Each structure stands twice: as C-alpha cells, then as structure tokens.
Amino acid sequence: MTTIYEQPLNERIRTFLRLEHLFTQLHYMRTEHHSIWHYRMVVSTLIEILNIFDRADIKTEFLKELDRLKIQLTKLFKSPNVNSKRLQDVIEKIDIQSEVLQNIKGRIGQSLREHELLTAIKHRLSIPGGTCNFDLPQYHYWLHEDDNRRRADIEDWITTFKPIEETTQLILKMIRNSSYTEDQVAVGGFFQKSLDSATPCQMIRVESALKGTFPEISGGKHRISIRFLSLDINGHPTQIDSDINFKLVCCMI
Question: Per residue in 79-91, pLDDT tens?
C-alpha cells in the first residue's frame, strides 16, 4: 500500500493544510458519532480552528492566495494546448470565492470569539482535564441537552467557517492537481533536490510503499531534503542505510 506524505514549502500552505486537517476531523466526528465524548471532540476541534484564526488574518491570506492562483492560471491562456473553456471555469470559481470572502464583514469567527460557552471552554482546554463537569458545569449541562439541540448548535457554529472551508478545498485541489511526478532514489536513505525559484513549488508529496519506514521532509523555496527513517515505536528512529525508491510529486502552480 502506498502512503502519501505532504510537506508545505511556505507558511501560507502550511496553514491551509492544518485547516483542511481540522475540517476533515470535525466533519467525521460530527457525522459518524453522536455520543457526549464525540461532541467534546467536535467542540475542541472548532476551538482549534478558531485558534488558527486568532494567530493570522486568514481572510487576507486566502484572498492573496486566490489572487496569486488567478494570475498564474491566466498566463496559461497563451498555451496552445490548454482547454480554454475549462480554464475559464476555474478562474470563475476563484472570482466567486474571492467575492464571498470580500463580502464578509469583520473578522471571520468573531461571533464565536464572543460566545460565552465556547470562550469558557477555550480557556480551560490548556489545563489537563480542565473541561470536566465540576470545572465547567454549563458545558456539562449543554452536553446532556437533547441531541437535536446540540446538533443545531454545532451546525450553527460550523456555518461560520463555511466560506473558509470551501476556499481551502478549492485552493488545495488546484495546487495538488497542478503537479508533476518523478521517480527518485534516496541513496543510503537520503535525498536532496534544488528547486527552481523562478517557478516556486508550493508543496511536495512523497509516495512510498516501503513498509517499516517513513520520510522526514524539510525544505523551503530553494531546496528540499528527505531522510527515510526506520519506524521504532518504542525507540528513536534511525536513518535507513539502503537505497529507497519513491515517487516525488512537486505541486508547482
């Protein structure tokens, strides 16, 4: 079985991938399970998403990325082999998503920052066991409310992030689809490659089917390095000393 490891090469893509991870976790927990403990995980994940919004001006970052993608895609109209109709459709999706974000007044998630229950939970999450029933009786009460009431609250809170989630999906889909794949060999478990700064790579993906090993990836806009390590769940991973065949995917748009 092939396992894919993704590595963002700039801070903006790193944030987008973290958001994608949290949204995936959020929807899985909310649709597949309905126990009190699963609701706790949903709320904790919502607060993690909110914490990302606290650290950066997410709306501005998304608008900049959409604008960058539009500029790059517009250049492709000059290529004789491009499907102009399909390309125009993609650019229109970018324009629509940009307009949606621009029409949002104020900071995304501001209503949740001011939500008394969520604020109380957020302040207690850094304390081990800090959200147990005697610390947050109002949370304990909410968790034992009628399931329809809890689900309605969750859906209302999730709606706040819908524009960002949709934009995250659009951007990462475009980046993943704008890629090329190379067969590579990590000699003695190590691989290094210089990148062309004129056509910056946004993210790399390493595809490996070798059991018992995993890649440790580092890099930036000029160079990437990959070390293949042996998996020792009870000890320190060590670098493989044999040659490793793998596929390297560079997402270039």
Answer: 878 788 888 999 9
Of the candidates 172, 197, 213, which is a domain's last residue?
A: 172
Residues 122 and 51: their CA atoms lie apart, in Å, by 9
**Domain carrying residue 209:** 178-251
In a domain, 1, yes or no: no
Count of beta carbons in the 10 Å neighbourhood of residue 23: 20
With 0-12 / 13-18 / 19 or more C-beta atoms within 10 angstroms meaning exposed / middle / buried, residue 154 is middle
Are the CB atoms for 236 and 30 separated by under 8 Å? no
Does residue 87 sit within a domain?
yes
- The answer to whether residues 26 and 162 touch, using CB atoms and an 8 Å cutoff, is no
Is the full-model pTM beyond 0.85?
yes
Task: Quickly count: other Cβ atoms within 10 Å of residue 126's Cβ.
Answer: 7
Per-residue pLDDT of 7-45, as tens digits, reads 999 999 999 999 999 999 999 988 777 789 999 999 999
